[in-house]
Each structure stands twice: as structure tokens, then as C-alpha cells.
Design goal:
Number of strands: 11
Oligomer: single chain
Helix content: 40-55%
CATH topology: TIM Barrel
Strand order of the largest sheet: 3-6-7-8-9-10-11
Length: 348
């Protein structure tokens, strides 16, 4: 059944309504592809300073909403602010990405602390409150965090990794010790999400960007179970706030992830066939996705055809249009406008 257009289309879709026009927002929609973002970024000392300066974070969050009239505004922040707030040394190097002091097993975990977490992350919550006061009435505000497994990989590896060997070796060889870190992250991340809702977030997304590197039994242990624990805490404290889960690269494990974590919507990556998602996922849960970000760079007829094909396959159920991952820095802003126009039926 097709639901009526409401004041918050994104929230309605996430709660199971099938909308005539699917709501749209894009992961990493505030970013380097926008000239106004680059000007704003130059005003911050470094990336963490950018995230922790509410005035700048508010402006970055609102830029794509004002330019493209997105249905969702995701707060400008980063998943690694939680690692920083727990006491780990976190930095960002241009051209390389995040650089952390790697955790050295149990001793490293012992140096982390939940104490002071709300105070360290207060600028994030101030930014959320600031954005909420300036959003158009129909736009929903999205808070987010990284999943425990994904955050743990950065904390253990010391940054990005090709094989995640250090993290996997610890998880496989000393699961009880690794579980101490995961349990700590469950507590920290649940508290962070709940605080975002209290500050004004109306939707939450949990990014498990590296879930796809886990074999099935480890996927259950280190992706599904911790996220379920977070969702249970969020639901108990903030009933009715939709939670989106994004286990990038999970393949057929998307189905148990969607079923067992308690999430309200599942964001699918580019490799997931939309017809399969409609059959296996959308009958019980809202599906979000899944345009290839490179298609958004490409633009033209190829972009319009791909967008139309995704909408055709998923519009019969609860659906939110998004990418299979984040907007790439080389994306022409005009292509993003073309995408939004195509979804909303304004392309000639």
C-alpha cells in the first residue's frame, strides 16, 4: 500500500511506509566534492577540529540539504570520534586517512575509559542541536556511529587495513580478550547514539563498513550480536527512533543481519542485486541503497538509467534511495542534482 506524503518522508519510509516518491539522502553527502565544503574545511586546524567545532559541523551538515533539498541530513562527524573520546590517540593525515596508536591487546584496552565520554563528545551533540534548529520541516536529522567490529579494526590496526590481520588474529585466537573491547564499544556506542537522539537526532545509522571481511560464524559473533545489543539499548531509551544498519560487503549474510539485529532498515551496498533485496529483505524491512558511487561520478544517461532501474526494482516496498557507499570526492555536484531530479521525476 502506498502511504501519503508526510512532513518527514524519510522517517515514514523507515517505519515501513511505501512512498510514491522514495526519500533520498546520500552517505558522505557533506564532503570534498562540494566547493563550499572545501572552503569551510580550510577554516579548521585539522579534521578532528572540524568535527569538534559545532559552528563548522552545523554548516557542513546543512550544505547538501540546502543545495539539493535532501530528505535526510546526516550530522557531520566521524565514526572515530568515539575512539578519540575513549582515550585513544586519533589523527587524520591528508592522503592517508585515519592514523591511530594501535591497541596492544588487553593492556591497550585497559587504558581506554568510558569516563568523560559525554563531555568529550559534547561538541557533536551541540552540532546536532544546532542543525535541528535550522532544518526544513520535511528533512529528518540522522545521527550515526560505527559498529563495534568496524571501530575495533581501526583501533587495533592503527588505521585502514587490507587484510585486518591483527584484528582477526586477536578475535580468532583470544576471543574472550577481544570481547572485552567489543563490550566496551557496545556501551560507548549505545551511549553515543542515545545522546545524539537526546540532542535532536530523529534517525540513527550504524556503519559496519568492514563487516564483509568476516566469515559467517565470526560475522554472527562480532557484527550481529554487538549491533543487536546496541539496538536493544537504543530502543529501550529512545523508543520509536528508526535505526538503519549498514553491513557493507555482507553478501547473503544481509538476510540474517536484517532479521537478527533488530534494526528498522538495512542499507545495501552496490554488489547486492536489487531483485534479491526485494525478495529476501524488503518483505520484512525497509531497504536503503544502492547506487554505485562511481555511477554518480559518471553522470549522464548512465546515471539516469541506473537510478531508474533501482527505483523500479525497489519502489514497491519501503525504500530509501542512497548509494552503495559514500559520495566520492571527484563527484560533480551537478550530477548529484541530476540524481535527485531523476528520483523526483523532474528529468525531461
Amino acid at each position: 500500500m502506498t502511504g501519503p506524503v508526510t512532513s518527514k518522508p524519510l522517517i515514514e519510509a523507515l517505519k515501513g511506509e511505501t512512498m510514491e516518491v522514495p526519500p533520498v539522502w546520500l552517505m558522505r553527502q557533506a564532503g570534498r566534492y562540494l566547493p563550499e565544503y572545501r572552503e569551510l574545511r580550510a577554516r579548521a586546524r585539522d579534521f578532528l577540529d572540524f568535527c569538534y567545532t559545532p559552528e563548522l559541523a552545523v554548516k557542513a551538515t546543512l550544505q547538501p540539504v540546502r543545495r539539493f533539498a535532501m530528505d535526510g541530513a546526516i550530522i557531520f562527524s566521524d565514526i572515530l570520534v568515539v575512539a578519540d573520546a575513549l582515550g585513544q590517540t586519533v589523527g587524520f593525515v591528508d592522503g592517508k586517512g585515519p592514523v591511530l596508536e594501535p591497541l596492544d591487546g588487553a593492556a591497550g584496552v585497559g587504558r581506554l575509559s568510558l569516563q568523560g565520554l559525554p563531555e568529550r563528545l559534547a561538541p557533536v551533540y551541540a552540532a546536532i542541536a544546532g542543525v535541528r534548529g535550522e532544518l526544513p520541516p520535511a528533512t529528518a536529522l540522522i545521527g550515526f556511529c560505527g559498529a563495534p567490529w568496524t571501530l575495533a579494526t581501526y583501533m587495533v590496526e592503527g588505521g585502514s587495513s587490507r587484510d585486518f590481520a591483527r584484528t582477526k588474529a586477536w578475535a580468532y585466537g583470544e576471543p574472550e580478550g577481544f570481547r572485552v573491547l567489543i563490550d566496551l564499544l557496545v556501551e560507548a556506542l549505545a551511549a553515543h547514539l542515545i545522546a545524539q537522539v537526546k540532542a535532536g537526532a530523529e534517525v540513527l545509522q550504524i556503519f559496519d563498513s568492514w563487516a564483509g571481511v568476516l566469515p559467517d560464524t565470526a560475522f554472527w559473533e562480532w557484527s550481529i550480536k554487538p549491533i543487536r545489543a546496541i539496538v536493544e539499548r537504543v530502543n529501550a531509551s529512545c523508543p520509536g527512533v528508526p535505526v538503519i544498519g549498514f553491513p557493507k560487503g555482507a553478501g547473503i549474510l544481509y538476510e540474517p543481519f536484517a532479521r537478527e539485529t533488530g534494526i528498522d532498515a538495512v542499507s545495501i551496498d552496490t554488489a547486492v542485486p536489487c531483485d534479491w533485496a526485494a525478495r529476501a529483505l524488503q518483505t520484512t524491512i525497509t531497504v536503503q541503497g544502492n547506487l554505485d558511487p562511481v555511477m554518480l561520478v559518471t553522470g549522464g544517461t548512465a546515471l539516469e538509467d541506473a537510478t531508474t532501474a533501482i527505483c523500479a526494482r525497489l519502489h514497491r516496498g519501503p525504500f530509501v534511495f542512497n548509494l552503495g557507499h559514500g559520495v566520492l570526492p571527484q563527484t560533480p555536484p551537478d550530477n548529484v542534482q541530476r540524481l535527485v531530479d531523476c528520483i523526483r521525476g523532474r528529468v525531461p
